Amino acid sequence: MYYILLIVGAALVNNFVLARFLGICPFMGVSKSIDTSVGMSMAVIFVMTLASFVTWLINFYLLVPFELQYLQTIAFILVIAALVQLVEMIIQRVSPPLYQALGIYLPLITTNCAVLGVAILNIQLGYNLLDACIFAAGAALGFGLALVIFAGMREGFELNNIPEAFRGTPIALITAGILSLAFMGFSGLVK
Amino acid sequence: MISSILLLGGIGFLAALILGVSAVTFAVKMDPREQAVLEHLPGANCGACGYAGCAAFAHEITTNAEAEMACPAVNEEALQAISEVLGRTLGGSAPLIACVRCKGVPEQTVNRYEYVGPKDCRAAQLVAGGSKGCRYGCLGLGTCEAVCPFAAIMMGEDGLPHVIESLCTGCGKCIDACPRSIIQLIPRSGNYYVGCISKDIAKDMKPLCKVGCIKCGICADICPFEAITVSKDASAVIEQSKCNRCGLCVSVCPTGIIAAVRMPGKVRISPEKCKGCSICEQVCPVEAISGKVKEPYLVNEGKCIGCGLCIEKCPADAIERIIS
Predict the structure, then answer these.
(1) Does the global pTM surpass 0.90?
(2) What is the CA radius of gyration of chain A?
(3) Surface of B (23-42) touching A: CB under 8 A
């Protein structure tokens, strides 16, 4: 039950994009079609979970013993960037179809603030290793959900007669704001 | 201080080491030829070859020894280079170019209603079949211009799309996008096309468009190669495999809608070589050559249509094209 609540809390109540406002760049950037947004979501789930796992280990086995917590941000960025590169290489060799599907999105989100955000939140909220991974997966799921919903709405724009001044990014930002308000309805669902 | 430098440096060094080692161990063996082929492909990822982008096609043509050159956008130079890389001769097809088969500028045509929707021909076509009076004519909203991955189509001030010859690669994207199928691919080498696809008989068409094919059949009659067919309910069509690019049809068309992709150069008679045999004067279909027997003949450039019939017949090889 605790884990279910953890996932729901991360995915819906404190949705990374719509409540914490992290990862706005890919949220606006790759939400033009549902296909690409699904690919991006998969890559985010993959990277966020993996990054949480590694950064948690780095934090508790390297930074804390040496009392170097102030290096958290830079150490995490370094580790995440290297990790994603490594994973990309391995996937390319081991599973070409998966590489085809995730390929271009993996390097894109290496230094994304949502990925770094989840790593730092894991430490701030005092999660243990399993908690951290599940929290990250839930958060990434929420990110993917928001991204796919938003991409669906943006595809709908194509058919609408939008006033000229609002076309493109302005209407996308307004829609994102309203979507964010809608997600505020989940607050209080957990705790 | 020291510990922080050591720690970050250590992590960085370790990461670099792991990445370096895995770059070698996990290196995907890529055929170097594939990369070379990819460099010669246009790189527009237009998908006209039937594969998911240029990289996918480069992979296919490198690995499959039977694969033919399916890229319609590749130019002759690149085709040659790819053939060299792969060590086999690639036939490829004759380079094609898009031509717009409608000359109905707004001043010459009538509209059935005023269209005020999205600037997209496909959308306009959905509104009662488009606003243009002629059901076959160009709607002129520039969908072909928008989809062209090579920026080779430009909407002219006359409201019709114009193909920029040097940029068009014949990928065919515009053909799929045009809701009225006005655009056609024809061989690049100076071939002719009829600028109208209307199936209306002349009496029905004339009130709608002053520059459509009236199905008079003069072009079909004059064509020495029988390459043109026309019937009362189909505009003239030039069969490209039979067309010898003589250009006679252009000069006789009463509505002036037959045009060439690239107008062939006019001819010039070399005064030194000409023996004055008068054969050229006899074969010239437009009476552009004149002169006296046993003296060098002259070409009236204003009349010459560059059909090249005289070049073939000249026994002294005295006639050549002026490259314009």
Answers:
(1) no
(2) 17
(3) 23, 26-28
